[in-house]
Design brief:
Layout lengths: L14 H9 L3 H9 L17 E5 L5 E4 L3 E2 L7 E2 L8 E6 L6 E6 L5 E6 L9 E4 L4 E5 L18
Antiparallel strand pairs: 1-2, 1-9, 3-4, 4-8, 5-6, 6-7, 7-8
């Protein structure tokens, strides 16, 4: 088992767990998370979410972004300037559509989240531009969803 600095189990889901998790996705979630799609701008349900809490991977429940790192970028997608834990995201060079970008995927389950760009606010200068359907929001004080039954239900900090 591999644990992140924040204490979360990063072991990939088994084939059976993955099949079970994928079965619960909507068509739009499946397109974004599994087929590297993108939701339409300014349509995501988490775009205006401003409560304290944490944004987790919709597929496996791993915390990806803290609410305090969210900012209004004007791009039409939820934007963050830092991950919950750098070990929770994998960055991949993306040369699709004639562009060079950096794709962000969940380090535990490999689901597509969005992209990161070097035009964000201080202190990091980064803008993680993430699809709402790739995330689920957990308000402060509520336990995290633990779909893999790994005991990763820590209340968000």
């Amino acid at each position: 088992m591999t644990r992140s600095p924040a204490g979360f189990d990063l072991t990939a889901p088994s084939a059976a767990d993955r099949e079970r998790l994928e079965a619960g996705l909507t068509a739009e979630e499946r397109d974004v998370l599994l087929k590297h799609g993108t939701e339409a701008p300014f349509c995501g349900v988490l775009l205006g979410e401003k409560r304290p809490g944490v944004f987790c991977c919709r597929l496996c429940g791993l915390p990806l972004f803290g609410g305090k790192t969210k900012f209004e970028s004007g791009t039409g997608w939820p934007s963050f300037n830092a991950p919950y834990d750098e070990a929770h995201l994998t960055l991949i060079r993306d040369t699709s559509y004639g562009m060079v970008r950096t794709e962000t995927v969940c380090a535990r389950c490999g689901s597509h989240q969005g992209h990161v760009f070097p035009d964000g606010p201080p202190p990091t200068g980064l803008r993680y531009c993430i699809n709402s359907v790739a995330l689920e929001f957990v308000p402060d004080g509520e336990p995290l969803r633990d779909p893999l039954a790994r005991g990763d239900t820590l209340a968000p900090a």
